């Protein structure tokens, strides 16, 4: 086997080990010991593999983690962009890990890899290096990542007699805590719908969708639930311009608190929002953290307008709120989160114990996107000691 082939195989192996935990979860094969072994091995390889292998690993990680992002483009009538976007994410993460290739010294690579754990390309934060340990025996905090990198690096700096002693530092990185499940005195119904994205926004879908929603609400009332949570944009319309539906929901809110996603237009600006109907009143929570290249373009304005019109038909121009919104339901505070923002640290700032989250995962199914989202929610819920009540269209509903 020649050197180039070895380098290619090492890059492939690194990417597979770094990504394995996602696919184990996808196919219900998650095992904490294997995830621990794969995670540690992937980081060790990043510290020691040849420079060429780093580029291969970075490119393949971009594909293995984010091949699905281009799927949504077909709903913007630019489906030809799907393979371009997929390859683009491969190159983005090739460049993301490329700084490791400036040196062969493991301790410098360890410093660079730790630094990369703070970097989010184009404000997109779904590649968290610590996430590889979310279902393992290793903890997910920054100090534990630092301990892991220290333990894996030091053998390269010590003489034979003490060469592997630093690996004992891995014991300090073990997660000894168990997430505490906070008691919830409310009976909450999480609704998972299955409305295909190509059908969701059509005129033909509107009446069946509304009928489905009201059926779910009435069933929840009959079953004695205190709260019903429906998915993101479950009402495919500007709710503030439809008084008939508003009035019907207000009437039902005497018997149950209704939380549902919809659109909102104000002063010619569009918002992705959550409505809470309670005691014949309603409250609106606007989305704070928008999806890069989905709801806004994270580029200078001269490029933003061009890309938005050419590739998104003008749809990536939503406006974000300045701060998160909290709902008070029967005296209990819930932080609102809409899809992407439930996987962003900003939504967990302040006094947060419970989050009501909603998503529309139909943009990306079938793919690993709902699984990766679930792992990220576990990651942030554990880090912040929060319980998440998540309702999704397509896949992903549950309590975390």
Write up this protein.
By secondary structure, the chain is of the alpha/beta class. It has eleven helices and ten strands. It has a five-stranded mixed β-sheet. It folds into two domains: 171 residues, no CATH class; 178 residues, Nitrilase/N-carbamoyl-D-aminoacid amidohydrolase (4-Layer Sandwich), CATH 3.60.110.10. The mean pLDDT is 90. The longest helix is centred in the first third of the chain and has 24 residues. α2 packs across α6 and α5 runs antiparallel to α6. The protein starts with a helix and ends with a strand.
CATH class annotation of the largest domain: Alpha Beta
Q: What is the global morphology?
A: elongated
Q: Report the CATH superfamily of the largest domain.
A: Carbon-nitrogen hydrolase
Evaluate the radius of gyration. 23 Å
* Number of discrete helical segments: 11
What is the CATH architecture annotation of the largest domain? 4-Layer Sandwich
Quaternary structure of the protein:
single chain
**Unreliable runs, pLDDT <50, ≥5 residues?**
none
Largest sheet, order of strands side by side? 1-2-3-4-5
Number of strands: 10
Alpha carbon gap, first and last residue: 47 Å
Amount of beta strand? 5-15%
How many strands, which pairing sense, and closed or not: the largest β-sheet? 5 strands, mixed
Mean pLDDT: 90
Order of helices and strands: HHHHHHEHHEHEEEHEEEHEE
Give the helix level as a range of percent. 25-40%
SS-derived structural category: alpha/beta
Question: Per CATH, what is the topology of the largest domain?
Answer: Nitrilase/N-carbamoyl-D-aminoacid amidohydrolase
